[in-house]
Amino acid sequence: MATLLRSKLSNVATSVSNKSQAKMSGMFARMGFQAATDEEAVGFAHCDDLDMEHRQGLQMDILKSDASEEGAEPPLEGDIHYQRDGTGPLPPSASKDAGGCAELSGQGKPKITAWEAGWNVTNAIQGMFVLGLPYAILHGGYLGLFLIIFAAVVCCYTGKILIACLYEENEDGEIVRVRDSYVDIANACCAPRFPTLGGRIVNVAQIIELVMTCILYVVVSGNLMYNSFPNLPVSQKSWSIIATAVLLPCAFLKNLKAVSKFSLLCTLAHFVINILVIAYCLSRARDWAWDKVKFYIDVKKFPISIGIIVFSYTSQIFLPSLEGNMQNPKEFHCMMNWTHIAACILKGLFALVAYLTWADETKEVITDNLPSTIRAVVNIFLVAKALLSYPLPFFAAVEVLERSLFQDGNRAFFPNCYGGDGRLKSWGLTLRCALVVFTLLMAIYVPHFALLMGLTGSLTGAGLCFLLPSLFHLKLLWRKLLWHHVFFDVAIFVIGGICSVSGFIHSLEGLIEAFRTNAED
Protein backbone atom coordinates (compact mmCIF):
# COMPACT_ATOMS: atom_id res chain seq x y z
CA MET A 1 0.00 0.00 0.00
CA ALA A 2 2.84 2.39 0.88
CA THR A 3 4.58 1.59 -2.42
CA LEU A 4 1.38 2.25 -4.35
CA LEU A 5 0.86 5.55 -2.56
CA ARG A 6 4.44 6.71 -3.28
CA SER A 7 4.05 5.76 -6.94
CA LYS A 8 0.78 7.70 -7.19
CA LEU A 9 2.28 10.80 -5.57
CA SER A 10 5.29 10.60 -7.89
CA ASN A 11 3.07 10.47 -10.98
CA VAL A 12 1.00 13.40 -9.79
CA ALA A 13 4.08 15.50 -9.01
CA THR A 14 5.44 14.79 -12.49
CA SER A 15 2.14 15.86 -14.03
CA VAL A 16 2.13 19.07 -12.02
CA SER A 17 5.69 19.80 -13.16
CA ASN A 18 4.75 19.23 -16.78
CA LYS A 19 1.96 21.78 -16.46
CA SER A 20 3.96 24.43 -14.65
CA GLN A 21 4.65 26.40 -17.79
CA ALA A 22 0.97 26.48 -18.70
CA LYS A 23 0.08 27.65 -15.21
CA MET A 24 2.64 30.45 -15.31
CA SER A 25 1.32 31.52 -18.70
CA GLY A 26 -2.23 31.50 -17.41
CA MET A 27 -1.29 33.35 -14.26
CA PHE A 28 0.64 35.97 -16.23
CA ALA A 29 -2.33 36.42 -18.56
CA ARG A 30 -4.65 37.03 -15.63
CA MET A 31 -2.25 39.34 -13.84
CA GLY A 32 -1.69 41.70 -16.74
CA PHE A 33 0.10 39.68 -19.44
CA GLN A 34 -2.16 41.21 -22.07
CA ALA A 35 -0.41 44.48 -21.51
CA ALA A 36 0.49 46.42 -24.67
CA THR A 37 2.98 48.90 -23.41
CA ASP A 38 6.23 48.98 -21.57
CA GLU A 39 5.22 48.82 -17.89
CA GLU A 40 1.74 47.36 -17.59
CA ALA A 41 2.98 44.32 -15.68
CA VAL A 42 5.21 46.25 -13.28
CA GLY A 43 2.52 47.12 -10.79
CA PHE A 44 1.46 43.50 -10.57
CA ALA A 45 4.73 42.45 -8.93
CA HIS A 46 3.23 42.26 -5.45
CA CYS A 47 0.15 40.44 -6.69
CA ASP A 48 2.42 38.09 -8.62
CA ASP A 49 4.09 37.01 -5.38
CA LEU A 50 0.73 36.43 -3.70
CA ASP A 51 -0.56 34.54 -6.68
CA MET A 52 2.47 32.25 -6.68
CA GLU A 53 1.83 31.41 -3.05
CA HIS A 54 -1.79 30.64 -3.87
CA ARG A 55 -0.76 28.40 -6.78
CA GLN A 56 1.67 26.50 -4.61
CA GLY A 57 -1.08 25.97 -2.07
CA LEU A 58 -3.34 24.79 -4.86
CA GLN A 59 -0.75 22.22 -5.94
CA MET A 60 -0.54 20.87 -2.39
CA ASP A 61 -4.33 20.54 -2.28
CA ILE A 62 -4.22 18.55 -5.51
CA LEU A 63 -1.50 16.26 -4.17
CA LYS A 64 -3.55 15.64 -1.06
CA SER A 65 -6.72 14.89 -2.99
CA ASP A 66 -4.88 12.54 -5.33
CA ALA A 67 -3.30 10.70 -2.42
CA SER A 68 -6.75 9.96 -1.04
CA GLU A 69 -8.45 9.01 -4.30
CA GLU A 70 -7.95 6.11 -6.69
CA GLY A 71 -9.50 7.94 -9.67
CA ALA A 72 -7.98 10.11 -12.31
CA GLU A 73 -6.09 13.31 -11.57
CA PRO A 74 -8.44 16.29 -11.14
CA PRO A 75 -7.91 19.19 -13.53
CA LEU A 76 -5.81 22.10 -12.37
CA GLU A 77 -7.95 25.18 -12.08
CA GLY A 78 -6.51 27.84 -14.34
CA ASP A 79 -4.57 25.61 -16.73
CA ILE A 80 -7.30 25.54 -19.35
CA HIS A 81 -9.53 28.42 -18.37
CA TYR A 82 -7.00 31.07 -19.27
CA GLN A 83 -6.65 30.18 -22.93
CA ARG A 84 -6.32 33.37 -24.92
CA ASP A 85 -9.16 32.50 -27.27
CA GLY A 86 -11.53 32.07 -24.33
CA THR A 87 -12.74 28.65 -25.53
CA GLY A 88 -11.39 26.55 -22.68
CA PRO A 89 -13.81 24.87 -20.29
CA LEU A 90 -14.74 26.73 -17.16
CA PRO A 91 -13.47 25.73 -13.73
CA PRO A 92 -15.88 23.82 -11.54
CA SER A 93 -16.50 26.85 -9.35
CA ALA A 94 -17.83 28.96 -12.23
CA SER A 95 -21.53 29.68 -12.29
CA LYS A 96 -23.68 29.90 -15.38
CA ASP A 97 -24.17 33.61 -15.06
CA ALA A 98 -20.67 34.61 -14.02
CA GLY A 99 -19.00 32.47 -16.70
CA GLY A 100 -15.23 32.78 -16.64
CA CYS A 101 -15.38 35.49 -14.00
CA ALA A 102 -15.52 32.98 -11.16
CA GLU A 103 -11.81 32.36 -11.41
CA LEU A 104 -11.10 36.05 -11.15
CA SER A 105 -13.46 36.71 -8.27
CA GLY A 106 -13.06 33.52 -6.27
CA GLN A 107 -12.48 33.67 -2.58
CA GLY A 108 -8.89 33.61 -1.38
CA LYS A 109 -7.57 35.30 -4.53
CA PRO A 110 -5.41 38.40 -4.03
CA LYS A 111 -7.31 41.55 -4.96
CA ILE A 112 -6.06 45.07 -5.53
CA THR A 113 -7.51 48.36 -4.38
CA ALA A 114 -8.51 51.24 -6.62
CA TRP A 115 -5.26 53.00 -5.70
CA GLU A 116 -3.19 49.98 -6.71
CA ALA A 117 -5.16 49.70 -9.95
CA GLY A 118 -4.53 53.39 -10.56
CA TRP A 119 -0.83 52.80 -10.03
CA ASN A 120 -0.87 50.17 -12.77
CA VAL A 121 -2.66 52.47 -15.19
CA THR A 122 -0.30 55.30 -14.28
CA ASN A 123 2.70 53.08 -15.03
CA ALA A 124 1.22 52.27 -18.42
CA ILE A 125 0.45 55.83 -19.52
CA GLN A 126 3.24 57.71 -17.71
CA GLY A 127 6.18 55.63 -18.91
CA MET A 128 9.42 56.81 -20.45
CA PHE A 129 7.74 57.38 -23.82
CA VAL A 130 6.56 60.77 -22.54
CA LEU A 131 10.09 61.86 -23.47
CA GLY A 132 8.84 62.16 -27.05
CA LEU A 133 5.90 64.48 -26.29
CA PRO A 134 7.87 67.78 -26.53
CA TYR A 135 8.81 66.71 -30.05
CA ALA A 136 5.08 66.42 -30.79
CA ILE A 137 4.56 70.01 -29.59
CA LEU A 138 7.37 71.08 -31.93
CA HIS A 139 5.30 70.05 -34.95
CA GLY A 140 1.82 70.78 -33.57
CA GLY A 141 2.04 73.85 -31.35
CA TYR A 142 -1.09 74.49 -29.29
CA LEU A 143 -2.94 71.89 -31.34
CA GLY A 144 -0.48 69.32 -29.99
CA LEU A 145 -1.40 70.36 -26.45
CA PHE A 146 -5.07 70.05 -27.34
CA LEU A 147 -4.45 66.54 -28.65
CA ILE A 148 -2.80 65.54 -25.36
CA ILE A 149 -6.03 66.55 -23.59
CA PHE A 150 -8.28 65.06 -26.27
CA ALA A 151 -6.42 61.73 -26.27
CA ALA A 152 -6.73 61.52 -22.48
CA VAL A 153 -10.50 62.10 -22.63
CA VAL A 154 -11.04 59.60 -25.44
CA CYS A 155 -8.80 56.88 -23.96
CA CYS A 156 -10.55 57.26 -20.61
CA TYR A 157 -13.94 56.90 -22.30
CA THR A 158 -12.96 53.94 -24.48
CA GLY A 159 -11.46 52.19 -21.46
CA LYS A 160 -14.80 52.46 -19.69
CA ILE A 161 -16.87 51.23 -22.64
CA LEU A 162 -14.43 48.36 -23.16
CA ILE A 163 -15.12 47.21 -19.60
CA ALA A 164 -18.86 47.64 -20.24
CA CYS A 165 -18.52 45.05 -23.02
CA LEU A 166 -17.48 42.48 -20.40
CA TYR A 167 -20.94 42.58 -18.81
CA GLU A 168 -24.44 41.53 -19.85
CA GLU A 169 -27.83 41.15 -18.19
CA ASN A 170 -28.86 37.68 -17.10
CA GLU A 171 -32.41 36.30 -17.00
CA ASP A 172 -33.03 38.00 -13.65
CA GLY A 173 -32.05 41.41 -14.99
CA GLU A 174 -28.75 41.47 -13.06
CA ILE A 175 -25.57 42.80 -14.66
CA VAL A 176 -22.98 40.01 -14.60
CA ARG A 177 -19.47 39.62 -15.98
CA VAL A 178 -19.50 37.11 -18.83
CA ARG A 179 -16.12 37.83 -20.45
CA ASP A 180 -12.58 38.09 -19.11
CA SER A 181 -10.37 39.75 -21.69
CA TYR A 182 -10.06 41.93 -24.77
CA VAL A 183 -9.80 38.73 -26.81
CA ASP A 184 -13.10 37.43 -25.41
CA ILE A 185 -14.83 40.68 -26.37
CA ALA A 186 -13.41 40.52 -29.89
CA ASN A 187 -14.49 36.89 -30.32
CA ALA A 188 -18.00 37.69 -29.07
CA CYS A 189 -18.34 40.42 -31.68
CA CYS A 190 -17.33 38.09 -34.52
CA ALA A 191 -19.44 35.13 -33.33
CA PRO A 192 -21.11 32.99 -34.50
CA ARG A 193 -19.85 33.18 -38.07
CA PHE A 194 -16.17 33.77 -37.19
CA PRO A 195 -15.86 32.85 -33.50
CA THR A 196 -12.05 33.26 -33.29
CA LEU A 197 -11.38 35.95 -35.90
CA GLY A 198 -11.69 38.88 -33.51
CA GLY A 199 -9.31 37.33 -31.01
CA ARG A 200 -6.72 36.69 -33.70
CA ILE A 201 -6.93 40.31 -34.86
CA VAL A 202 -6.42 41.56 -31.30
CA ASN A 203 -3.51 39.14 -30.80
CA VAL A 204 -1.80 40.32 -34.00
CA ALA A 205 -2.23 43.96 -32.96
CA GLN A 206 -0.88 43.12 -29.53
CA ILE A 207 2.17 41.30 -30.91
CA ILE A 208 2.98 44.20 -33.23
CA GLU A 209 2.73 46.72 -30.40
CA LEU A 210 4.79 44.63 -27.99
CA VAL A 211 7.56 43.94 -30.51
CA MET A 212 7.64 47.59 -31.57
CA THR A 213 7.92 48.56 -27.91
CA CYS A 214 10.96 46.28 -27.62
CA ILE A 215 12.48 47.92 -30.70
CA LEU A 216 11.88 51.36 -29.20
CA TYR A 217 13.76 50.34 -26.06
CA VAL A 218 16.79 49.31 -28.13
CA VAL A 219 16.58 52.51 -30.19
CA VAL A 220 16.32 54.78 -27.17
CA SER A 221 19.17 52.92 -25.40
CA GLY A 222 21.51 53.43 -28.35
CA ASN A 223 20.40 57.04 -28.80
CA LEU A 224 20.84 57.97 -25.14
CA MET A 225 24.26 56.35 -24.79
CA TYR A 226 25.52 57.91 -28.02
CA ASN A 227 24.44 61.40 -26.98
CA SER A 228 25.76 60.91 -23.44
CA PHE A 229 29.29 60.08 -24.60
CA PRO A 230 29.70 61.80 -27.99
CA ASN A 231 33.50 61.87 -27.68
CA LEU A 232 33.82 58.10 -27.56
CA PRO A 233 34.55 56.37 -30.91
CA VAL A 234 31.33 54.36 -30.62
CA SER A 235 28.41 54.92 -33.01
CA GLN A 236 24.74 54.74 -32.11
CA LYS A 237 24.45 51.42 -33.93
CA SER A 238 27.31 50.02 -31.87
CA TRP A 239 25.61 51.13 -28.66
CA SER A 240 22.45 49.39 -29.83
CA ILE A 241 24.42 46.19 -30.41
CA ILE A 242 25.91 46.42 -26.92
CA ALA A 243 22.44 46.95 -25.45
CA THR A 244 21.11 43.92 -27.32
CA ALA A 245 23.99 41.78 -26.06
CA VAL A 246 22.90 42.69 -22.53
CA LEU A 247 19.29 41.82 -23.42
CA LEU A 248 20.03 38.44 -25.03
CA PRO A 249 19.50 36.52 -21.75
CA CYS A 250 15.83 37.54 -22.01
CA ALA A 251 15.44 34.54 -24.31
CA PHE A 252 15.94 32.28 -21.28
CA LEU A 253 13.27 33.92 -19.12
CA LYS A 254 10.69 31.66 -17.49
CA ASN A 255 8.93 34.31 -15.37
CA LEU A 256 9.20 38.00 -14.61
CA LYS A 257 9.01 38.18 -10.84
CA ALA A 258 12.55 39.46 -10.23
CA VAL A 259 12.55 41.66 -13.32
CA SER A 260 9.24 43.25 -12.33
CA LYS A 261 10.66 44.28 -8.96
CA PHE A 262 13.68 45.92 -10.61
CA SER A 263 11.44 47.61 -13.15
CA LEU A 264 9.27 49.00 -10.37
CA LEU A 265 12.33 50.70 -8.89
CA CYS A 266 13.23 52.05 -12.32
CA THR A 267 9.72 53.44 -12.69
CA LEU A 268 10.15 55.41 -9.49
CA ALA A 269 13.54 56.59 -10.74
CA HIS A 270 11.92 57.71 -13.97
CA PHE A 271 9.47 59.92 -12.11
CA VAL A 272 12.43 61.50 -10.33
CA ILE A 273 14.14 62.08 -13.68
CA ASN A 274 11.02 63.78 -15.04
CA ILE A 275 11.01 66.07 -12.02
CA LEU A 276 14.70 66.89 -12.59
CA VAL A 277 14.03 67.76 -16.24
CA ILE A 278 11.12 70.02 -15.29
CA ALA A 279 13.21 71.63 -12.53
CA TYR A 280 15.95 72.43 -15.06
CA CYS A 281 13.41 73.88 -17.45
CA LEU A 282 11.90 76.03 -14.69
CA SER A 283 15.36 77.38 -13.91
CA ARG A 284 15.41 78.80 -17.44
CA ALA A 285 11.90 80.23 -17.29
CA ARG A 286 13.15 83.73 -18.16
CA ASP A 287 14.31 82.47 -21.55
CA TRP A 288 11.15 80.60 -22.47
CA ALA A 289 10.18 81.10 -26.13
CA TRP A 290 6.42 81.69 -25.85
CA ASP A 291 6.39 83.21 -29.33
CA LYS A 292 7.45 79.84 -30.78
CA VAL A 293 4.22 78.12 -29.67
CA LYS A 294 1.71 78.94 -32.40
CA PHE A 295 -1.55 77.73 -33.81
CA TYR A 296 0.04 76.00 -36.73
CA ILE A 297 0.90 72.47 -37.74
CA ASP A 298 3.56 70.86 -39.84
CA VAL A 299 1.33 69.08 -42.34
CA LYS A 300 3.96 66.48 -43.11
CA LYS A 301 5.14 65.70 -39.57
CA PHE A 302 2.11 66.50 -37.41
CA PRO A 303 0.32 63.19 -38.19
CA ILE A 304 3.39 61.48 -36.74
CA SER A 305 2.88 63.54 -33.58
CA ILE A 306 -0.65 62.17 -33.34
CA GLY A 307 0.72 58.64 -33.20
CA ILE A 308 3.26 59.66 -30.56
CA ILE A 309 0.55 61.13 -28.32
CA VAL A 310 -1.80 58.17 -28.78
CA PHE A 311 0.97 55.66 -28.08
CA SER A 312 1.74 57.36 -24.77
CA TYR A 313 -1.83 56.62 -23.57
CA THR A 314 -2.18 52.96 -24.57
CA SER A 315 -3.47 50.83 -21.69
CA GLN A 316 -6.72 49.30 -22.96
CA ILE A 317 -5.30 45.87 -23.67
CA PHE A 318 -4.83 45.01 -19.99
CA LEU A 319 -7.80 46.89 -18.47
CA PRO A 320 -10.13 43.83 -18.43
CA SER A 321 -7.64 41.86 -16.33
CA LEU A 322 -7.09 44.85 -14.08
CA GLU A 323 -10.80 45.46 -13.49
CA GLY A 324 -11.37 41.77 -12.79
CA ASN A 325 -8.78 41.85 -10.03
CA MET A 326 -10.11 44.93 -8.22
CA GLN A 327 -11.63 44.53 -4.77
CA ASN A 328 -14.47 46.85 -5.78
CA PRO A 329 -14.95 46.96 -9.58
CA LYS A 330 -17.49 49.78 -9.12
CA GLU A 331 -14.53 52.09 -8.40
CA PHE A 332 -13.07 51.43 -11.85
CA HIS A 333 -14.68 54.49 -13.49
CA CYS A 334 -13.48 56.81 -10.74
CA MET A 335 -9.99 55.33 -10.98
CA MET A 336 -9.91 55.89 -14.74
CA ASN A 337 -10.99 59.50 -14.28
CA TRP A 338 -8.30 60.57 -11.84
CA THR A 339 -5.49 58.63 -13.51
CA HIS A 340 -6.18 60.15 -16.93
CA ILE A 341 -6.73 63.64 -15.50
CA ALA A 342 -3.38 63.39 -13.71
CA ALA A 343 -1.71 62.03 -16.83
CA CYS A 344 -3.18 64.80 -18.96
CA ILE A 345 -1.96 67.53 -16.63
CA LEU A 346 1.52 66.07 -16.13
CA LYS A 347 2.06 65.27 -19.81
CA GLY A 348 0.81 68.65 -20.94
CA LEU A 349 3.03 70.53 -18.48
CA PHE A 350 6.05 68.37 -19.24
CA ALA A 351 5.68 68.74 -23.01
CA LEU A 352 4.99 72.50 -22.89
CA VAL A 353 7.71 73.38 -20.38
CA ALA A 354 10.31 71.32 -22.23
CA TYR A 355 9.39 72.82 -25.60
CA LEU A 356 9.43 76.39 -24.23
CA THR A 357 12.95 75.77 -22.96
CA TRP A 358 14.48 74.54 -26.22
CA ALA A 359 11.89 75.66 -28.85
CA ASP A 360 13.00 74.76 -32.38
CA GLU A 361 16.02 72.85 -31.07
CA THR A 362 13.78 70.26 -29.34
CA LYS A 363 15.02 66.75 -30.15
CA GLU A 364 13.18 63.45 -30.51
CA VAL A 365 14.25 62.40 -27.00
CA ILE A 366 14.09 65.51 -24.84
CA THR A 367 16.92 64.48 -22.49
CA ASP A 368 19.33 64.90 -25.42
CA ASN A 369 18.79 68.66 -25.02
CA LEU A 370 20.15 68.72 -21.46
CA PRO A 371 23.66 70.07 -20.78
CA SER A 372 26.35 67.42 -21.07
CA THR A 373 27.06 67.41 -17.33
CA ILE A 374 23.45 66.53 -16.46
CA ARG A 375 22.64 64.57 -19.61
CA ALA A 376 25.06 61.71 -18.98
CA VAL A 377 23.71 60.96 -15.50
CA VAL A 378 20.05 61.24 -16.51
CA ASN A 379 20.52 59.19 -19.68
CA ILE A 380 22.35 56.38 -17.88
CA PHE A 381 19.39 56.01 -15.50
CA LEU A 382 17.01 56.01 -18.47
CA VAL A 383 19.08 53.38 -20.29
CA ALA A 384 19.04 51.19 -17.19
CA LYS A 385 15.27 51.62 -17.01
CA ALA A 386 14.87 50.78 -20.70
CA LEU A 387 17.00 47.63 -20.43
CA LEU A 388 15.13 46.41 -17.35
CA SER A 389 11.75 47.22 -18.90
CA TYR A 390 12.54 45.40 -22.18
CA PRO A 391 11.85 41.89 -20.75
CA LEU A 392 8.22 42.78 -19.93
CA PRO A 393 6.92 43.35 -23.49
CA PHE A 394 9.35 40.76 -24.85
CA PHE A 395 8.08 38.02 -22.55
CA ALA A 396 4.46 38.98 -23.25
CA ALA A 397 5.08 38.85 -27.01
CA VAL A 398 6.76 35.45 -26.65
CA GLU A 399 3.82 34.15 -24.64
CA VAL A 400 1.32 35.26 -27.29
CA LEU A 401 3.39 33.79 -30.11
CA GLU A 402 3.92 30.48 -28.33
CA ARG A 403 0.27 30.19 -27.36
CA SER A 404 -1.01 31.11 -30.82
CA LEU A 405 1.48 29.24 -33.00
CA PHE A 406 2.95 26.41 -30.93
CA GLN A 407 0.65 25.58 -28.00
CA ASP A 408 -2.90 25.99 -29.28
CA GLY A 409 -3.73 22.29 -29.37
CA ASN A 410 -4.94 20.97 -32.72
CA ARG A 411 -5.18 24.53 -34.03
CA ALA A 412 -1.45 25.22 -33.59
CA PHE A 413 0.41 26.00 -36.80
CA PHE A 414 3.68 24.41 -35.65
CA PRO A 415 4.78 21.60 -33.29
CA ASN A 416 4.85 22.32 -29.58
CA CYS A 417 8.01 24.18 -28.63
CA TYR A 418 8.03 22.53 -25.19
CA GLY A 419 9.09 18.97 -24.50
CA GLY A 420 7.28 16.40 -22.40
CA ASP A 421 9.17 17.56 -19.29
CA GLY A 422 7.96 21.13 -19.76
CA ARG A 423 11.34 22.45 -20.88
CA LEU A 424 11.77 24.70 -23.90
CA LYS A 425 13.21 22.87 -26.90
CA SER A 426 16.45 24.07 -28.46
CA TRP A 427 14.76 25.32 -31.62
CA GLY A 428 12.24 27.19 -29.50
CA LEU A 429 15.09 28.92 -27.69
CA THR A 430 16.63 29.73 -31.08
CA LEU A 431 13.40 31.44 -32.15
CA ARG A 432 13.41 33.51 -28.97
CA CYS A 433 16.99 34.61 -29.66
CA ALA A 434 15.97 35.40 -33.24
CA LEU A 435 13.25 37.72 -31.92
CA VAL A 436 15.83 39.60 -29.83
CA VAL A 437 18.10 39.90 -32.88
CA PHE A 438 15.15 41.10 -34.97
CA THR A 439 14.55 43.98 -32.57
CA LEU A 440 18.24 44.87 -32.93
CA LEU A 441 18.13 44.85 -36.73
CA MET A 442 15.09 47.11 -36.76
CA ALA A 443 16.78 49.47 -34.30
CA ILE A 444 19.92 49.58 -36.46
CA TYR A 445 18.23 50.19 -39.79
CA VAL A 446 15.55 52.55 -38.49
CA PRO A 447 17.08 54.34 -35.47
CA HIS A 448 14.37 56.99 -35.30
CA PHE A 449 12.53 57.06 -31.99
CA ALA A 450 9.77 59.48 -33.04
CA LEU A 451 9.00 57.74 -36.34
CA LEU A 452 8.76 54.29 -34.78
CA MET A 453 6.66 55.58 -31.90
CA GLY A 454 4.37 57.45 -34.31
CA LEU A 455 3.97 54.39 -36.54
CA THR A 456 3.12 52.13 -33.60
CA GLY A 457 0.68 54.63 -32.13
CA SER A 458 -1.06 55.17 -35.45
CA LEU A 459 -1.33 51.48 -36.32
CA THR A 460 -1.96 49.50 -33.14
CA GLY A 461 -2.41 52.26 -30.57
CA ALA A 462 -5.29 53.93 -32.39
CA GLY A 463 -6.79 50.56 -33.24
CA LEU A 464 -6.73 49.17 -29.70
CA CYS A 465 -7.61 52.46 -27.97
CA PHE A 466 -10.02 54.16 -30.39
CA LEU A 467 -11.38 51.98 -33.17
CA LEU A 468 -11.99 48.55 -31.64
CA PRO A 469 -13.50 49.64 -28.28
CA SER A 470 -16.03 51.93 -29.97
CA LEU A 471 -16.83 49.29 -32.60
CA PHE A 472 -17.27 46.53 -30.02
CA HIS A 473 -19.42 48.79 -27.83
CA LEU A 474 -21.77 49.48 -30.72
CA LYS A 475 -21.88 45.84 -31.76
CA LEU A 476 -22.54 44.29 -28.35
CA LEU A 477 -24.63 46.94 -26.59
CA TRP A 478 -26.19 49.06 -29.32
CA ARG A 479 -29.77 48.22 -28.27
CA LYS A 480 -29.20 49.62 -24.79
CA LEU A 481 -27.17 52.70 -25.70
CA LEU A 482 -28.47 56.24 -25.45
CA TRP A 483 -28.23 58.44 -28.53
CA HIS A 484 -25.28 60.46 -27.21
CA HIS A 485 -23.31 57.25 -26.54
CA VAL A 486 -23.94 56.15 -30.12
CA PHE A 487 -22.82 59.58 -31.33
CA PHE A 488 -19.62 59.46 -29.27
CA ASP A 489 -18.79 55.95 -30.44
CA VAL A 490 -19.32 56.79 -34.11
CA ALA A 491 -17.38 60.05 -33.80
CA ILE A 492 -14.46 58.35 -32.07
CA PHE A 493 -14.40 55.59 -34.67
CA VAL A 494 -14.39 58.08 -37.57
CA ILE A 495 -11.88 60.51 -36.06
CA GLY A 496 -9.68 57.69 -34.83
CA GLY A 497 -9.74 56.06 -38.25
CA ILE A 498 -8.74 59.27 -40.02
CA CYS A 499 -5.92 59.98 -37.56
CA SER A 500 -4.75 56.38 -37.70
CA VAL A 501 -4.57 56.23 -41.48
CA SER A 502 -2.97 59.67 -41.80
CA GLY A 503 -0.38 59.03 -39.10
CA PHE A 504 0.43 55.57 -40.41
CA ILE A 505 1.00 56.80 -43.98
CA HIS A 506 3.26 59.68 -42.94
CA SER A 507 5.18 57.58 -40.42
CA LEU A 508 5.67 54.82 -42.97
CA GLU A 509 6.91 57.32 -45.55
CA GLY A 510 9.39 58.69 -43.03
CA LEU A 511 10.59 55.21 -42.13
CA ILE A 512 11.03 54.22 -45.77
CA GLU A 513 13.01 57.37 -46.42
CA ALA A 514 15.16 56.77 -43.34
CA PHE A 515 15.69 53.14 -44.35
CA ARG A 516 16.87 54.20 -47.82
CA THR A 517 19.23 56.76 -46.35
CA ASN A 518 20.77 54.22 -43.98
CA ALA A 519 21.07 51.68 -46.79
CA GLU A 520 22.95 54.19 -48.95
CA ASP A 521 25.30 54.98 -46.08
UniProtKB/TrEMBL annotation:
The chain crosses the membrane at residues 143-167, 207-226, 262-282, 302-322, 334-356, 376-401, 429-446, 452-474, 486-505. Keywords: Cell projection, Cytoplasmic vesicle, Membrane, Neurotransmitter transport, Synapse, Transmembrane, Transmembrane helix, Transport. One of its GO terms (cellular component) is vacuolar membrane. Residues 111-507 form the Amino acid transporter transmembrane domain. It is a multi-pass membrane protein. One of its GO terms (molecular function) is gamma-aminobutyric acid:proton antiporter activity. It catalyses: 4-aminobutanoate(out) + n H(+)(in) = 4-aminobutanoate(in) + n H(+)(out); beta-alanine(out) + n H(+)(in) = beta-alanine(in) + n H(+)(out); glycine(out) + n H(+)(in) = glycine(in) + n H(+)(out). Pfam families: Aa_trans. It is found in: Cytoplasmic vesicle membrane; Presynapse. Residues 67-99 are annotated as: Disordered. One of its GO terms (biological process) is neurotransmitter transport. Belongs to the amino acid/polyamine transporter 2 family. Antiporter that exchanges vesicular protons for cytosolic 4-aminobutanoate or to a lesser extend glycine, thus allowing their secretion from nerve terminals. The transport is equally dependent on the chemical and electrical components of the proton gradient. May also transport beta-alanine. Acidification of GABAergic synaptic vesicles is a prerequisite for 4-aminobutanoate uptake. This is Vesicular inhibitory amino acid transporter. It comes from Crypturellus soui.
